[in-house]
Amino acid sequence: MSVVENCKIDRILAVDDTRDNLILVQAILESEGYEVDLACDGITALRKIEQSPPDLILLDVMMPGMDGYEVTRRIRNNRAISSYIPILLITAFHESSVVEGLDAGADDFIRKPFDTDELLARVRSLLRLKHSLDEQQKMTRQREDFVSRLTHDLRTPLVAADRMLNLFEMETFCKISPEMKQAIAVMIRSNQNLMQMVNTLLEVYRFEAGKKTLNWEVCDWPEIAQEVVSEITPLTNEKGLTLKVDTSGLDPKDKNAGIVMGDRLELRRVLYNLIAKGASQFCKNKERKIIRDESSRIIRGNLILWIFLLLLRTRTNI
Are 107 and 16 within one domain? Predict the structure, then answer.
């Protein structure tokens, strides 16, 4: 039987220009508990698919007007069809190569006159594929929804905690000892690090969901690097590390030296994460440099920032 665990009955669309063939297929499938819809030509089939997508399509290859190959291509190219629909081509021995149909996007084929048991076996196989893909899509949607809700719910208390800690640090409520100020400063940095992790998780979700748009703008790369180094220096000082931004390789006469095209926020985020991650791996009392050469094409040093090739478009169009 085609009844799955949620009691949903699989619906199959049979497409054939010969009425007798449709009646035969309908009788076979309905005897197994499937819901069957019929279409006598490609245009009618496409209209029914857009109105109510079936779980499986049985498609005859040779039909007047629009053949099965063209119907298959239009289905696969139709972005309005959100879920994947398996297509089983039905073809006679003397008809065109099945390779063309498979290349067009069909999933399987069966030749006429077909054996009933073989037809039902192929139908069951393709419906298993359909159920598996639908379950994967469902899990993906649930994961995206979970990440979206999680990051939103986490950001609210973190922002509130950050504001409150800053008020304590500024002695808004009462005077505090230097030791307490130092402890609060550590708490603020830890809270901000957690906020950064939440923001990164949200950005990754947006990228995967295709909802993140990069804002291309002119960015001063040395300036961004200096901002990040200034922000992360308190953390590296605790480890006995020294960070420097070395711009000696830049031509001081070139107004565009160190200028790149990219998303400033994402450049800053990636650079911060890379330096913070790298700093945690470095030995103490070591001096590390971030160097940018005059062509603005290579970032070199102990931090190999190859990932920026995905985010940058320099004036040299690398």
Answer: yes
Q: Percent helix, strand and coil across the chain, each rounded to 5? A: 50, 15, 30
Rounded Cα distance between 304 and 314, Å, is 18
Question: Please, are residues 26 and 14 in contact by the beta-carbon 8 Å criterion?
Answer: yes
> 196 and 273: one domain?
no
Q: How far apart are CA 169 and CA 45, in angstroms?
A: 69
Report field, pTM of the whole predicted structure over 0.85? no
How many helices and strands, by DSSP H and E, does the chain display? 8, 11
Q: Which residue range is the domain that position 199 belongs to?
A: 143-209
Please state, as a whole number, how many other Cβ atoms lie within 10 Å of the Cβ of residue 80: 7
For residue range 149-182, what is the model confidence (pLDDT) as tens digits?
Answer: 777 777 778 888 888 888 888 888 888 888 888 8
pLDDT of residue 318: 35
| Whether residues 263 and 197 fall in one domain | no
Q: Is residue 284 part of a domain?
A: yes
Q: For residues 275 and 303, is the Cβ–Cβ distance under 8 A?
A: yes
| Pick from 41, 27, 16, 12: nearest CA to 92 | 16
- Extract the residue ranges of the chain whose pLDDT is less than 70: 1-7, 93-97, 206, 208-213, 280-318
Identify whether 135 is part of a domain.
no
Choosing from 209, 226, 249, the residue where a domain stops is: 209
Task: State residue 127's pLDDT score.
Answer: 95
**CA torsion through residues 74, 77, 78, 81, sign:** positive
Contact 245, 275 (CB under 8 A): no
- The alpha carbon torsion through 36, 37, 39, 42 (nearest 10 deg) reads -90
The DSSP letter of residue 312 is -
pLDDT digit string, tens, across residues 25-40: 999 999 999 999 999 9
- Residues 198 and 295: beta-carbon distance below 8 Å: no
| 290 SS3 class | strand
